[in-house]
Amino acid sequence: MADCIFCKIASGEINAKVVYDDADVVAFLDLNPQAPTHALIVPRRHIDRLTAATEADAELLGKLQLAAAKVAKVLKVEGAFRLVTNNGKGAGQSVDHLHYHLLGGRKLLWPPG
Ligand code: AMP
Question: What is the pTM assigned to this prediction?
Fold first, then answer.
């Protein structure tokens, strides 16, 4: 997608603090962290949001979760972290490219705000 900031990060056109990447997935630190550890895990292929994914994306969705677990290890929060996606503006989605927030490094309350 031409104007998608996360597509540009995935392609290397825009710099980010990349903490993990493979053929299908890129993970980088959030610019505005909400916890001591806050990374975003995104597919290289553009998908607007989770509800825009189809059966054809099933393998990619699995890879995103496995990548998230690797990112948690890389960032040394594998013992306690939260993985969340904001699907739609009402849920707080501000970037229309599927991404999972990985948050850790502090006590995480439930329910979230
Ligand atoms: P959401 O509000 O769920 O769509 O999450 C988007 C996240 O992307 C926010 O937490 C932003 O801080 C983060 N973000 C936006 N632009 C960048 C960027 N260029 N590099 C890293 N994180 C970003």
Answer: 0.98
